Amino acid sequence: MSPRAAARLATIGFEQVYDYTAGKADWAAAGLPLEGTGAAIPRAGDFARRDVPTCTLHDDLRTVRDRVRDSGWDLCIVLDSNGVVIGRLGRAALAADDHRSVEAAMSAGPGTIRPNVPLERIVTRLRERNLHSAVVTTSDGRLVGVLRRDDAESRAGDDASKQT
Fold it and tell me: Facing residues of 142 across strands?
């Protein structure tokens, strides 16, 4: 089971939740330095914005909304006490003027990508799925940042023009 799934199950009352142990492939997935011919390839973690607003299940949603609006972002990543991504508050949840909890308002278990995924591949995926951003996490589910599609497209375009 992934650490994100384990963290979410623990928050809803499961007492025996297990995590997996990292392996060799986790080095790159953790965004650690690479060597060799592939090291120069632009990757998602290189351009993930680390200033994305975060909150926890216990934060007051109205306070979170105000903080996110003030930051200029239109989303907030929900983390557990270990910094593991367990949810995402998107535009609709942040625009609503209701009194739900963060847990009730969030989209649980958002899709994530690893920092080592080549930028070109992520740009293609974001375009195909008409997504504006992707949450970047390590293999143990900890937040690295959010890769915005416009940032990724701009950088991918810069690299393509340098190769011609």
Answer: 84
Helix pair 149-163, 119-128: axis angle to 10 deg: 130
Which pTM value belongs to this model? 0.78
142: helix, strand or coil:
strand
| Residue 131: φ, ψ to 5° | -105, 150
Distance CA 38, CA 34 (A): 8
* Second-level CATH architecture of 3-14+41-163: Roll (3.10)
d(CA 140, CA 83): 10
pLDDT means per 10 residues, the chain with 164 residues, are: 79 77 68 77 92 96 94 96 96 88 94 92 95 93 95 76 44
> Which tokens go with 26?
């986790």
Contact status, residue 76 vs residue 54, Cβ threshold 8 Å: yes
30 Cβ partners below 8 Å, 6+ apart? 22, 115, 138, 139, 140
